[in-house]
Amino acid sequence: xxxxxxxxxxxxxxxxxxxxxxxxxxxxxxxxxxxxxxxxxxxxxxxxxxxxxxxxxxxxxxxxxxxxxxxxxxxxxxxxxxxxxxxxxxxxxxxxxxxxxxxxxxxxxxxxxxxxxxxxxxxxxxxxx
Length: 129
Prior knowledge:
This protein is α/β, with parallel strands linked by helices. It is 29% helix and 31% strand. β6 (114-119) and β7 form a beta hairpin. The longest helix is centred in the N-terminal third of the chain and has 12 residues, at 13-24.
């Protein structure tokens, strides 16, 4: 499964570096990391020099929701994982989530320990333990 990771950010350069490093520490690496800078005035644009392979997109300050949408629009993979700039992932997060997705007919999941299944016209929620 090919994954794009979308990380919206605004004026959180130091947190952003830590978030990206947690993505790079994954057992299962995504195909691309997209950082959408939502109008930062700090050193956030430096991130494209620190991690030259990321896709860095700058937009005028429009809010985190529009930044996430911009990331989705620029993603080149069918699966998208969101990471907030001040969060980190445990190193097996993507691998665990993908295994659950592969071994089910899930069409959507998130790490709040829920998976959604499409069955005819309804979407059912199943808690993961």
